[in-house]
Design goal:
3 helices, alpha+beta, 24% helix
Length: 139
């Protein structure tokens, strides 16, 4: 009779079920968020507001917003390492979708296992300023 693996699965499932929804949201450094994704925060990023969403069963998820010069936004998106094959509608070969209001990119970052996918939206705030919003997805 095999008890070890089925028992371990059962205990893990019961624990996960009992502790579902226990994720915690904490303010975090945007530099830390970008580093955990395997990226670098743009040099001129300002007005940064990032959040770490921790869960006992998954790697931390991240969400954040920051401002950067509009003229540098596309170049920064193109510098991000990762798999760009999960393109959003209207995206070009580089994975970036250009829209009247800004840019959009879905990408699988290089730190596989920590973050499964990142959605990055760039909204044009003015002729000089862009607002970048990102969210990671795990599991």
């Amino acid at each position: 009779m095999v008890v070890g693996p089925p028992l371990a699965w059962g205990v893990s499932f019961a624990y996960a079920f009992m502790h579902a929804g226990e994720s915690k949201t904490n303010k975090a450094s945007c530099t830390k968020a970008m580093t955990s994704i395997g990226w670098k925060l743009p040099r001129q990023a300002d007005r940064q507001q990032c959040t770490e969403i921790s869960d006992p069963f998954f790697a931390s998820a991240w969400a954040g917003t920051f401002h950067m010069p509009r003229a540098e936004a596309r170049t920064w998106l193109l510098s991000l390492p990762g798999d760009r094959s999960h393109r959003v509608a209207g995206a070009g070969p580089d994975g970036v979708a250009e829209r009247k209001e800004g840019l959009h990119l879905n990408i699988v970052p290089p730190v596989y296992g920590q973050v499964d996918e990142v959605n990055v939206e760039v909204q044009w705030e003015s002729q000089e300023d862009a607002v970048v919003t990102f969210e990671t997805y795990n599991g």
